[in-house]
Amino acid sequence: MPETTVNVRYIVDNVEAATEWYTKNLGFTLLSNHAPAFADVKLGSLRLLLSGPKSSAGRAMSDGELPRPGGWNRIHLIVGDLRAEVARLQAAGVKLRNEIVTGPGGSQVLLVDPSGNLVELFQPAPR
Asked: Looking at the predicted structure, is the pLDDT value of residue 60 above 60?
C-alpha cells in the first residue's frame, strides 16, 4: 500500500510559536508558513495543519462560537525510548501534562504545545 499523508488540523493561538515548537522539539519539517494565519508541518506521513485565529479555520461558527485550541484529542507518536525522550524534552523546557503512565499495551506521556493542544508520546510494550 502506498504511503498516505494523514492531515490533522490543530487550532493554535500563535502560528509562529506552534511552528517553532513542533519543528524544534519533535522533529517536524516546515512545509509552508503563512503566519500569522496558517502553517503546515510534516513528520513521516503526518501533516499537521497549524491554524491561527486569522485563518479560515479560526472563523466563528454560525452560532458565534470561536474555534479554540486544547481539549483531549491528540496526535499519537510512537517512540523507541520514552524515558529518554521525556528527559530530552524536559531539558528543552517542554511542558508535560502528566507523568509517564504504563499499561498492558505500553507507556505514554502527554506533552502540551504552546496553545494547550496535546501530543501523546507512546512506547509500545515489548512483545
From this structure: yes
Summarize pLDDT for 67-96 with one digit per residue, the tens.
989 888 899 999 999 999 999 999 999 999
| The C-alpha cell that represents 18 in the structure block | 506552534
Q: DSSP states of 79-94 as a string? A: -S-HHHHHHHHHHTTP
Model pTM score: 0.88
Which backbone phi and psi does 76 adopt, to 5 degrees? Answer: -125, 110
Q: Where are the alpha helices (DSSP H) in the chain?
A: 15-26, 82-91
Cell representation of residue 25: 522539539
Give the integer Cα–Cα distance in Å for 28 and 41: 6
Residue type, 60: A
Q: Classify residue 14 by burial, with Cβ atoms within 10 Å: 0-12, 13-18, 19+.
A: middle
For residue 9 the three cell numbers come to 488540523
